[in-house]
Amino acid sequence: MPRGGAQTTVNALAGYFASLGGIVYTSSPITSLEGFSPHTVLVCDLSPRQLLEIAGNRLEPEFQRELGRFRYGPGAFKVDYALSAPIPWKAADCARAGTVHLGGTLEEIAASESEVWQGKHPERPFVLLTQPTLFDPSRAPAGKHIAWAYCHVPNGSTFEMTERIEAQIERFAPGFRDCILARHVSSPALLQTMDANLVGGDINGGAISLRQVAFRPTSRLYTTPDPSLFLCSASTPPLGGVHGMCGYHAARTVLQKIRFRP
Ligand SMILES: Cc1cc2nc3c(=O)[nH]c(=O)nc-3n(C[C@H](O)[C@H](O)[C@H](O)COP(=O)(O)OP(=O)(O)OC[C@H]3O[C@@H](n4cnc5c(N)ncnc54)[C@H](O)[C@@H]3O)c2cc1C
Fold this sequence. Notes:
Layout: H1 7-19, E1 42-44, H2 48-55, H3 61-68, E2 75-83, E3 99-102, H4 106-117, E4 127-130, E5 145-153, H5 162-172, E6 180-186, H6 188-194, H7 210-214, E7 229-231, H8 245-259
Parallel strand pairs: 1-7
Antiparallel strand pairs: 2-5, 2-6, 3-4, 4-5
Bound molecules: flavin-adenine dinucleotide (FAD).
Flavin-adenine dinucleotide binds next to β2.
């Protein structure tokens, strides 16, 4: 866990990029690729739906149809907490973990995730919870703590899951509710407002089906029929996650393609 929060990782990456002469523009949404020269290499950290919106007119109809068939996965419903004390876990080991997965038995977890795929909201959701202040006290006032938790919900869901998430935490940490000083709820729609890549609250850049693992988002992977236009997001292999490998492979593809461009 980076001291001070995940933003410090972003700052380090952006600082390195700047040291190489790169420029980062923030709060500058791109709504269209018109205005960019067709010879400018564009590497888009976008999911297929956004690529269609922004670059549709540069893409062949068949490729547009392929992108349109791309499926998104479940959304995430997230709650951030300010806490008066560490979470009072029943299991002592949980008080030493950065991330705790709350689901009871394997059968219970499987049933809960399966319900989400059927468009339902599980009574006992599989909750992923992090408690960073156990390891980085700089993130909260002295003696206080923070945590955040999320569970899966059907893509684009508007159902309020806070109560069910808290009941699940309380089940494994009786007294958790008494520690809550404040909470901030992020529905799938709010997550998408904060980051347009989280379509319907999907934090993985698209459903992880057998087909979409191998051909993500299409069999062209990082390339498009437009030789100047590339994709590098979690909607490309090797799927979502903060590993950076989608961008790494996209960058290598770009270098290979532009080196041999006639
Ligand atoms: C709550 C949460 C918890 C997670 N937990 C984990 C975890 O524990 N482990 C893990 O490995 N992964 C986790 N992930 C997933 C991981 O963060 C993503 O898979 C990864 O960040 C995807 O990277 P990306 O580059 O594809 O897109 P993003 O990181 O979403 O970056 C896309 C960027 O493009 C910007 N953008 C989008 N559209 C436009 C536009 N039109 N114009 C300009 N800018 C635009 C967005 O604002 C954003 O900054 C989590 C995600 C969330 C939201």
